[in-house]
């Protein structure tokens, strides 16, 4: 554990995006925890081991693709979710929209990086379960797709 102690009068707890950046730095450095204490305030992050994200094929292999099954599109990492196109107020994949395999349906911000969350198969967006700006964890279901069958 890395522990820093100081008496910084202006110490403020980090917001969600700053926390995501700190977590990324910890992972990149191979550290599993960080604790910052300043006077009466403290901030502690303890990371659990992260499994490698499942390949897209593995994410949909558990579901049998028939007309009644919805496919969950999940967050591949921890980060801040964006459901809107960058620099626009236009949804990437609103409910009812048709998507093809590989289409970007959401974005995940991890510090300065943005990662595309893509549709694992062709289908129609059935339900959006997360909100724009949500802090999501690995495996959080973002939306569901009703697969199309040719």
UniProtKB/TrEMBL annotation:
Gene3D superfamilies: 2.40.50.100. This is Uncharacterized protein. It comes from Kozakia baliensis. InterPro entries: Biotin_lipoyl, Single_hybrid_motif. It comes from the Bacteria. SUPFAM superfamilies: Single hybrid motif. Pfam families: Biotin_lipoyl.
């Amino acid at each position: 554990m890395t522990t820093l102690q100081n008496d910084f009068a202006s110490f403020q707890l980090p917001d969600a995006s700053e926390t995501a950046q700190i977590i990324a730095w910890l992972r990149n450095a191979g550290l599993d925890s960080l604790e910052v204490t300043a006077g009466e305030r403290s901030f502690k992050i303890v990371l659990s081991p992260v499994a490698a994200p499942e390949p897209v094929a593995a994410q949909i292999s558990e579901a049998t693709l028939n007309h009644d099954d919805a496919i969950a599109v999940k967050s591949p990492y921890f980060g801040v979710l964006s459901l809107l196109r960058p620099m626009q107020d236009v949804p990437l994949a609103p409910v009812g929209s048709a998507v093809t395999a590989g289409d970007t349906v959401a974005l995940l911000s991890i510090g300065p990086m943005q990662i595309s969350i893509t549709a694992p198969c062709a289908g129609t967006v059935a339900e959006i379960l997360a909100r724009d700006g949500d802090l999501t964890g690995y495996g959080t279901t973002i939306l569901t797709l009703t697969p199309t069958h040719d």
